[in-house]
Amino acid sequence: MKPALVFDWNGTLLDDTYALLDTTNVILNRFGRPRIDIDSLREHCDVPLSRLFHSLGMSQEEIEAVERNEGALFHDTYEPLADKADLREGARRVFELARRESALLIIVSNHIVAPLQSQLRRLGIDDYISDVLAFESRATQYKSMSKGERLRLYMQRCNLNPSSTFIIGDMPVEIDIARNLGLTSISITGGFVSTKRLQAACPDYTINNHHELLPILQGHGFFSEC
Question: pTM score, two decimals?
C-alpha cells in the first residue's frame, strides 16, 4: 500500500513565518500596539488568527476591524510578503521521492484555495500535489468546514487507510487531527509555533526540516530505496 502524506501549508511547506510576523506587526501598529518578535509570535500563534490577536491584547472591536471586508487588512498585507517565500528545506526532495513512489501528496490548510494554488504554481510544485483541501474564499475562512473534517471526509471518499497516512504540520492542530483520525503525526519545528508548544501536544515524531521526514517514512516501510 502506498502512503498518503498530508501536509499543512503555511509554516510547514511554505517558509512564510516571517511573512506572518511582519503582517502581524503591521496590524499591531495600525492600532498603536507594540511590535512583537518571532519568539512572541511562536508563543501566541493560534487559529483562527483572531485568537492570536486576542492573545496579543487586541480588543474585540479591533479584531472585528481586522476581520472587516473579509479580512482585507490581513490578506492584502500578507499575500505580497508570502509571494517572496520559498519552500522549507527538504520539501522539494520529498515531493520528488513521493512522485517516484506514487505516494499521495495532499495539502490540508486553513488558507484559501486560490492563493494557495497560485503559490504552488509560482514554486513549480503544483504537479506534485494530488489535492488541496482549504477554505473556498476569504468569506468562508474559519466559518465553514474545519481542516480535520475536510480531511476526514476526503479519506472516506478516497478510502485512505489511516495506518499509512501521515500528517505533517507546524501547529498542535495537526497533532489533534492525527489523534482524532488515527493518523501518524509529524510536527516540524521552525514554523508558526514554538518547539515547546509542539512537544507539549505530544506528536508521534518531531522534525526540524523535511529531510528528516524520510527516515520516519522508511521506518514505517515506505520509501525504502531512497
Answer: 0.95
